[in-house]
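Lecture notes, continued. The same structure-token format from the folding unit now serves as the input rather than the output. Read the line below as a description of shape only.
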């Protein structure tokens, strides 16, 4: 597994200067910790940094930074270095299991083949279940020779405190909306309004912002036209709110059905829905602060139709829905319930 090339045309690490220099100091001091925890949001350059770190530790030129030309650097880049191991979620799975950690343990039970420092990279380390974490903890307590672990995690609170205490914590700060906006405008020549919309919808994640603007080249989601999908979704939500009570029930259920056809897109769909309900909630007070500025006229229409209390309730329902989906509730039923709640709340009936 090599460096994630999907962002090759845009270097996330240029915004992590402090973190990169912290890692360089570690290498130059020749005191490589047994375990490092790279914490932070998605797409802040953590995986890229892990590979750069492994290259720099093993670079034959020994300058403390990766030369990218020696045999070792090239092997790591080509994904053919025998001492660079990576553990990640298996396809279709939501947790990293103990068998994966045991398998890795077996692979590192003998000495490294050729590396000065072998790297075991654990992506999505916060998705290891408890047994897997306990198995890993044993390895961290008695680390194999010339081996360091890098754990990449979003939610460090999911990790055992005993694991965290054995790791040197390296934090990757999230990019700000403004920074993402600036990148989109300057690097990708996106117009200002769309740059604002994408950066605010993407919640500090540049790669996501690029996805919403169909800018990602090698992304698995490239088949989805997010510009079109976002417009369709916002129009569909506005239409549910605009129409009379009987029609809006069927519209809500129809939208629920359509959204549940694409479970893989649900997180980003919810992200867009959140901007819609948030905009609706704040429009009367701060019309210029809404995210979906290209729907300004729509919000002018619909914000008059609903009282503020309901708008707040709806946003609350959406957050509940997001939580339910994260705890594996059935997608269709959860979305049905969400839209029915919106519709019935609109009609001033009590539904639960
Ligand atoms: Zn090198």
């Amino acid at each position: 597994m090599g460096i994630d090339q999907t962002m090759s045309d845009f270097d996330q690490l240029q915004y992590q200067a402090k973190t990169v220099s912290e890692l360089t100091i570690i290498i130059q001091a020749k005191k490589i910790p047994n375990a490092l925890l790279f914490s932070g949001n998605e797409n802040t350059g953590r995986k890229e940094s892990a590979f750069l770190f492994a290259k720099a530790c093993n670079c034959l030129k020994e300058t403390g930074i990766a030369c990218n030309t020696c045999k070792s650097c090239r092997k790591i880049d080509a994904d053919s270095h025998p001492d660079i191991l990576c553990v990640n979620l298996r396809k279709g799975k939501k947790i990293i299991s103990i068998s994966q950690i045991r398998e890795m343990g077996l692979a590192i039970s003998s000495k490294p083949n050729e590396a000065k420092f072998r790297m075991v990279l654990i992506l999505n380390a916060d998705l290891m279940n408890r047994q897997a974490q306990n198995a890993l903890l044993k390895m961290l307590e008695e680390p194999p020779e010339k081996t360091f672990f890098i754990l990449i995690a979003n939610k460090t609170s999911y990790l055992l405190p005993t694991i965290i205490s054995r790791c040197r914590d390296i934090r990757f700060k999230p990019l700000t909306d403004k920074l993402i906006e600036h990148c989109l405008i300057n690097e990708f020549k996106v117009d200002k309004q769309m740059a604002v919309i994408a950066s605010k919808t993407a919640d500090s994640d540049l790669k996501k912002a690029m996805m919403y603007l169909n800018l990602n080249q090698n992304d698995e989601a490239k088949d989805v036209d997010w510009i079109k999908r976002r417009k369709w979704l916002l129009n569909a939500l506005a239409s549910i709110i605009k129409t009379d009570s009987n029609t809006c029930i069927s519209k809500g259920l129809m939208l629920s059905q359509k959204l549940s056809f694409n479970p893989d897109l649900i997180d980003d769909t919810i992200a867009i829905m959140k901007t819609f309900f948030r905009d609706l909630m704040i429009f009367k007070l701060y019309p210029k602060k809404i995210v979906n500025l290209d729907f300004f006229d729509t919000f002018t229409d619909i914000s008059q139709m609903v009282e503020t209390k309901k708008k707040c309730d709806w946003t609350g329902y959406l957050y509940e829905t997001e939580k339910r989906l994260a705890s594996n509730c059935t997608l269709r039923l959860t979305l049905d319930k969400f839209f029915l709640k919106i519709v019935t709340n609109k009609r001033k009936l009590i539904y639960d």
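Point for the exam: The pocket of zinc ion is lined by residues 59-61, 66-67, 70, 72-73 (CB under 6 Å).
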